[in-house]
Design brief:
Number of helices: 8
Distance between the termini: 61 Å
Domain RNA 2-O ribose methyltransferase substrate binding: 5-47
Structural class: alpha/beta
Helix content: 25-40%
Largest sheet: 6 strands, parallel
Keywords: Methyltransferase, Transferase
CATH class of the largest domain: Alpha Beta
Radius of gyration: 19 Å
Organism: Algibacter lectus
Protein name: 23S rRNA (Guanosine-2'-O-)-methyltransferase rlmB
Number of strands: 6
GO biological process, one term: methylation
Shape: elongated
């Protein structure tokens, strides 16, 4: 691929917010058996949903909304496990960022046990944008974070709500954490100071299920 065409491709990928990575030519050869011009595209196996349309659809259906926002979950197996749990707990949709998170690929599909095909997934430019839209739609946004004194047993998940889970390394972006409606953490009674994000997500979602079943 010549320099001009490469620059044009770079510009187009940036405009469309498409994730890209640079790899040795040997990897491209393995992926395509040598049939490439210096670039290979991987197409998502699922169709992403429009977040605003999905929220409207859920509200108009008469259901009590329960959404899950993922702030740059980077491990595909965690991502897949979270999708599986979300589908099992009746989450209406999962919102992810266009950049910075794990892709939907074969590992995601396998770990989700196929749940990735059964639950709507939406992409937004920034998770904070999703937070503001949820709030404007009267959906309370609850952050899963250790930076609070409240546990999941102190917070109500009965009303329309969205739960944010942060990335494995840095958690929820501080600027996003400032604009949420509530914060909650899991009580940790042992010596280890944190849980795997997919495990923590499961605990939050099943507390929401429990509260809604006994309300």
């Amino acid at each position: 691929m010549d320099g001009e065409l490469f620059n044009e491709l770079e510009s187009l990928l940036s405009k469309k917010s498409v994730n890209k990575s640079y790899v040795p030519v040997e990897k491209l050869n393995r992926l395509t058996k040598g049939n490439h011009q210096g670039a290979v595209a991987q197409i998502s196996p699922i169709e992403f949903h429009d977040m605003e349309a999905l929220i409207t659809e859920v509200i108009e259906s008469g259901k009590t909304p329960l959404f899950l926002l993922l702030d740059q979950i980077s491990d595909v197996r965690n991502f897949g496990a979270i999708i599986r749990t979300a589908e099992c707990t009746g989450v209406n949709g999962i919102i992810i960022q266009k950049k910075g998170g794990a892709p939907v690929n074969g590992d995601t599909i396998k770990t989700s046990a196929g749940a990735v095909f059964k639950i709507p997934i939406c992409k937004v430019d920034h998770i904070k944008d999703a937070v503001f839209y949820m709030q404007a739609s009267d959906i309370k946004v609850i952050a899963a974070t250790e930076k609070t004194n409240d546990t999941i047993y102190d917070v109500s998940f009965v009303e329309p709500c969205a739960i944010i889970m942060g990335s494995e390394g840095r958690g929820i972006n501080p600027s996003t954490l400032k604009v949420v409606d509530s914060k909650a953490k899991l009580p940790l009674l042992g010596e280890i100071e944190s849980l795997n994000v997919s495990v923590a997500c499961g605990a939050f979602l099943y507390e929401a299920v429990r509260q809604r079943m006994v309300k």
